[in-house]
Amino acid sequence: MRTLVLFFRAGVLLFALFAGCADVAGAAGPGAAAIPPGHGFAPPPPDDCSGGILYANHNGNFESAYAWTWYHDPYVNAFGESYDLGMGQISCGAFWLTTIGEVPPAPTEVYVWDGNDPPGAVLAMVQGVQFQNLPVWPEFGVNLVPISLEVTRPFTIGYWSGFDGEPVWYIGADLDGFGGTPWTYAICGDYPDWCRVDYIWGPTQSIGIGVYFHSGPTPVEASSWGRIKSLY
Questions:
Q1: φ and ψ at 225, to 5 degrees?
Q2: Which residues contact 194 (CB under 8 A, 6 or more apart)?
Q3: Alpha carbon distance 71, 73 (integer Å)
Q4: CA quadruple 211, 215, 219, 220: dihedral positive or negative?
Q5: Is the pLDDT of residue 217 over 70?
Q6: Can you spell out the DSSP letters for 109-140?
Q7: For 24-53, what is each residue's pLDDT tens digit?
Q8: Which helix (H) or strand (E) holds 30?
Q9: Which of 52, 102, 146, 197 could form a disulfide with 214 if both were Cys (CB 3.0 to 4.6 A apart)?
Q10: What SS3 state is found at 77?
């Protein structure tokens, strides 16, 4: 097994509430929260998710962090990040999270959805997840969630948390990296649908959701930032 790790630069950040979902870039509605641009810091992820390489679409820096202040079943206001890694097996999801204060429990589910443009049917779900590594901004903690699933095509991995009021935690947002495909499932127009994160919070290259992935009988060798979007 080969594990890829990353580091983050420290910085200063404040808290602010912005607006929510809309179907034009940068438009706003109630419910979306963000930490204004700055620089977050996180230690390397723990090496305790067996099988595969850790892939992530961010560049190792989070300049902001996003959350929703309300939720609805099924997985309305979920976040997801898409990957196209070919045939192989997912062994864990990785989630870079931060908070701004006390962390009361919140119901959380981790999902893998089929496809990436946009995400489609649910392929796998883990219920009863409790994120434990939740440092206060500007630090980020990496939370690993085992989820075993074989895939043969693009997929999206993400989570839904049942906040009711002020967010408990925020997902890291990379504003200037090499790019990925960040999604949120929200009220886009008159009904829930998948929206690119850019439509709600403005230009965002990727969010802090990665995946441990094993391709074939041996792990894929990471050779290019742009081609396989993996960390080093």
A1: -60, -50
A2: 80, 118, 119, 183, 184, 185, 188
A3: 7
A4: negative
A5: no
A6: EEEEEE-SSS--SEEEEE-S------PBTTB-
A7: 233 344 578 888 777 777 666 766 676 788
A8: none
A9: 52
A10: coil
Measured CA distances, 93 to 80, 83, 142, 143, 217 (Å): 11, 12, 10, 8, 20
Report the C-alpha gap between 202 and 128 in whole angstroms: 31
- Of 107 and 149, the structure prediction assigns the larger pLDDT to 149
* 162-213 tens-digit pLDDT: 776 677 789 999 998 888 999 999 876 667 789 999 989 999 999 999 999 9
Tell whether the model's pLDDT for residue 231 goes beyond 50: no
Cis peptide bond prior to 154, omega within 30° of 0: no
End-to-end CA distance of the chain: give it in Å, rounded.
Answer: 14
Angle at 219 (CA atoms; ends 81, 158), nearest 5 degrees: 15
φ, ψ dihedrals at 203, nearest 5°: -50, 120
CB-CB contact of 81 with 90 (8 Å): no
| Strands across the sheet containing 155-161 | 122-126, 108-114, 155-161, 78-83, 182-187, 192-196
Instruction: With 0.70 as the threshold, say if the pTM is over it.
Output: yes
Contact between residue 103 and residue 3 where contact means Cβ atoms under 8 Å apart: no
